[in-house]
Design goal:
Blueprint: H1 2-19, E1 39-43, H2 48-59, E2 62-67, H3 84-91, E3 97-98, H4 101-108, E4 114-117, H5 124-133, E5 137-141, H6 148-161, E6 165-168, H7 175-185, E7 192-198, H8 223-227, H9 253-262, H10 264-270, E8 277-282, E9 297-306, E10 309-318, E11 322-325, E12 330-333, H11 349-352, H12 357-361, E13 364-369, E14 372-376, E15 384-386, H13 409-419, H14 429-448, E16 452-453, H15 468-471
Helix pairs in contact: 1-6, 2-13, 5-6, 6-14, 7-10, 9-14
């Protein structure tokens, strides 16, 4: 009876929050007392799910339910990337376990306050929207969704329900990122004209010409549930547990995997919104050579306009010497057969000057302004500007962005849930939804191998009507999303 009353209270207050004018007032979905337990269900318990569970528990959540399409209790020999599935079941033996997140939400929502969604990309929107409509706060991994329409839908449902939300791009909670946002906005390099960002992904097969040959599904995996809303393809260990990232059907390639991390500071600082166009060069100028998989490398240019001002935002991923070896089902260097690719797709030297070898081998950002350049890496605190003389006399601004407890995204999410503040976690869906829309637009340009004009208000490309099927994909029967935009 207690849990039912609590759920009614949460839903009622969340509805009140959604009805409020967002810019002026926030109505907490629930005010927790000092001794209240804030209970969380985990959708996805391996890979990133394992760290999200550990981070949530460390932040203060009680783990109240677990869900995964892999049941380690039936797994005879847990190894490799699936080993961390064991920990969740061992560490939280009293948390009910489900293989179907829909069943978990139906049976456990009244006993939960929040969920983590740490599944492959193609399930993010479905699980997240269902959880929000149950009145549950949602911490969903990046990219927030698999598709552009889905990002808009998730943002809308977040506003309608008024629940607390957070996307899992962890560095958003770190002080050095928030400080750089403040400095860029204060004009430390003047007016920004260009942004260049790069990554060392993919570290999985891409440019895959066809799906792998199907194999018998192991008894510990519910493959139909893993496929979920996407096109059905037979099971293969070349897809699950890790390489799904390199297939359009379930992943979003190197861009979707890393851009919500690496683009985050500059997108946030510049408050970019939606671009007016995006274009790409990829796979030696041949575009997306496979309908199944993203190419081995891509350079994507987004164009943003604010009045007469224009900002070019350029993304670089992949390896110029990479080819797909079907026998090994892996990428290798065409110049050094049998070895991993090594020729990075990076910004030109006039942009990179000053970047160290470790930054070139990983990922980073260079922002180019009228008064200089700023180098930033989300995993390091030693951001710097060039020329350094531009710092002489610079009026460093006071802190204006709240800091997360211990610079930890799970702490920030917990604290927002406890306060009932829908925007208390700063990578909330009201920010992360439009950000994800922007990021995923790059894949439209890659897939269609042309300059794609963009009408953000209508989620349409005026010059690429064939992109509609990628903007809003078809779902398997029984997996539709009932959201009206």
């Amino acid at each position: 009876m207690e849990s039912l009353s609590r759920r009614k209270m949460i839903k009622g207050a969340a509805a009140a929050a959604a009805a409020t004018t967002w810019n002026f007032q926030v109505v907490p979905s629930r005010v927790f007392g000092a001794n209240d337990r804030i209970r969380l269900g985990a959708i996805g318990t391996g890979g990133k799910g394992a760290s999200d569970i550990a981070g949530s528990a460390g932040a203060g959540f009680e783990i109240g339910a677990l869900c995964d399409v892999v049941d380690v209790a039936q797994y005879p020999n847990v190894e490799g990337r699936l080993k961390n599935l064991i920990g969740a079941r061992r560490n939280y033996p009293n948390a009910p376990f489900y293989m179907d997140w829909r069943e978990m939400l139906e049976k456990e929502a009244g006993n939960l306050d929040a969920v983590t969604v740490s599944t492959p990309d193609h399930v993010h929107a479905h699980a997240t929207i269902a959880a929000m409509r149950k009145g549950l706060a949602c911490y969903t991994q990046k990219p927030l969704t698999h598709g552009i329409w889905e990002a808009r839908a998730v943002t809308q449902v977040a506003k309608e329900t008024g629940v607390v939300t957070q996307m899992g791009n962890q560095a958003h909670a770190e002080n050095h990122m928030r400080r750089c946002v403040e400095l860029v906005r204060a004009g430390i390099i003047g007016k920004v004209k260009e942004v260049h960002v790069w990554t060392n992904r993919p570290i999985w097969p891409q440019a895959v010409p066809h799906y792998p040959k199907g194999e018998e599904v192991p008894k510990h995996i519910n493959w139909d549930l893993w496929i979920g809303p996407s096109q059905f393809v037979d099971y293969s260990p070349k897809i699950l547990p890790f390489n799904w990232r390199g297939y359009w059907n379930w992943g979003t390639g190197a861009l979707g995997d890393m851009a919500c991390h690496i683009m985050d500071m500059s997108y946030w600082a510049l408050e970019l919104g939606a671009p007016v166009s995006v274009e790409a060069v990829s796979a030696d100028g041949k575009g997306a050579m496979s309908d199944v998989s993203p190419p081995t490398w891509a350079t994507i240019t987004y164009t943003f306009k604010n009045g007469d001002d224009e900002i070019k935002y350029i993304w670089y991923d992949g390896y110029k010497d990479a080819i797909f070896n079907e026998e090994q089902w892996a990428l290798e260097s065409k110049d050094y057969p049998g070895n991993k690719p090594r020729t990075r797709n990076l910004p030109p030297e006039e942009i990179l000057e000053g970047a160290g070898s470790d930054e070139r081998s990983g990922y980073g950002t260079v922002m180019v302004g009228t008064d200089g350049k700023l180098w930033f890496n989300r995993s390091k605190e030693n951001w710097y500007v060039k020329p350094s003389t531009k710092l002489d006399g610079f009026d460093f601004p006071e802190q204006s962005i709240p800091r997360a407890r211990d610079e930890n995204p799970h702490n920030e999410f917990f604290d927002a849930v406890k306060a009932g503040d829908p925007k208390g976690a700063l990578s909330n869906f009201h920010h992360a939804g439009p950000f994800t829309e922007m990021v995923l637009l790059g894949n439209l340009a890659v897939k269609h191998n042309k300059k794609v004009e963009w009408d953000a208000a209508n989620l349409k490309s005026p010059n690429t009507p064939e992109a509609d099927a990628m903007i809003k994909r078809d779902y398997r029967e029984g997996w539709g999303l009932d959201v009206k935009l």
